[in-house]
Please model this.
Amino acid sequence: MKNADTIASGGNPACGDVVKLWVKLSVDKKKIQDIKFKAFGCGACIASTSALTVIVKGKTISFAKKITNKDIADFLGGLPPQKNICSNFSTDVLKKALEKF
Model:
């Protein structure tokens, strides 16, 4: 994404799950105007990151900062217990991207 207001990445390279987010904020810096991602790793990591972008696009920053891993899993209709950690990466990276706002 060109002219992103913030970019953040994270995950667990040891297991192969890596997430990078580009976030464009509204003019007043109160809403997420656009959000793009690249995610590498298991299907749960990629699906969780995609779900996150759908959930937060157009929402306020304060709303986005409150998104939990459970919110992501619920949006997806659940994740296998051993894959719940994968939803953590997307929310962790989003919080990292928005921490200065």
About this structure: The helical segments are 43-56, 61-65, 69-75, 84-98. The chain has a mean pLDDT of 94. DSSP finds four helices and three strands in the chain.
